[in-house]
What we know:
Structural class: alpha/beta
Order of helices and strands: EHEHEHEHEHEEEEHHHEE
Strand content: 15-25%
Amino acid sequence: xxxxxxxxxxxxxxxxxxGLTEEGFNVSVAPDGLIGEKMAxxxxxxxxxxxxxxxxxxxLELCKIIKKEKPTTPIIMLTALGTTENVVNGLDNxxxxxxxxxxxxxxxxxxxxxxxxRYNGAIANDQIINISDLQINLSAKxxxxxxxxxxxxxxxxRLLEFMAKNKSKILSRIDIxxxxxxxxxxxxxxxxxxxxxxLRKKVDKTGSQKLIHTAIGLGYVLKDA
Length: 225
């Protein structure tokens, strides 16, 4: 799980980073709102923790920006501003939860687990596959890479869906022919290679990393880093 912490207090950063790393999370840190915005929009994070009082862009405004671009990313507001009005304001700006400083790490960790369970369940119900910053909605038959919607032909979509459902598995050309085209092809045809190249140009063009890989002599595989 990849988490983003947007926080300018070194002591708080140290406590949260150390605690979450020990729990097996990958934690990235942004020291101000402007850096936080760039990191949140250009990368995939499973959850984001925001302070409100930040240099550059305050946490409330940043929360609004992130939720507009990535509505399915859970956000916890972490702040010393603890009045009812502050809490309501944070939730109204899109935060999923609000934790007041000073806090106990155990409580923060419990809230993180709760939000991840909630959102992972929603993703399963909506039939969404996430691989790095690639998102495939199996119900709507839509594809996004780095929050940019991709225009795919029906065949390109079927190919991508098949590869995504078999993430990290090397698929031979015969596997792909039988499952994507569902008809008998001359095994000497290069239709698979042609369509993988079509897909590669669209999927890997806008992302931060290459996802479609060639396994020389074996076939193709869709995987993240």
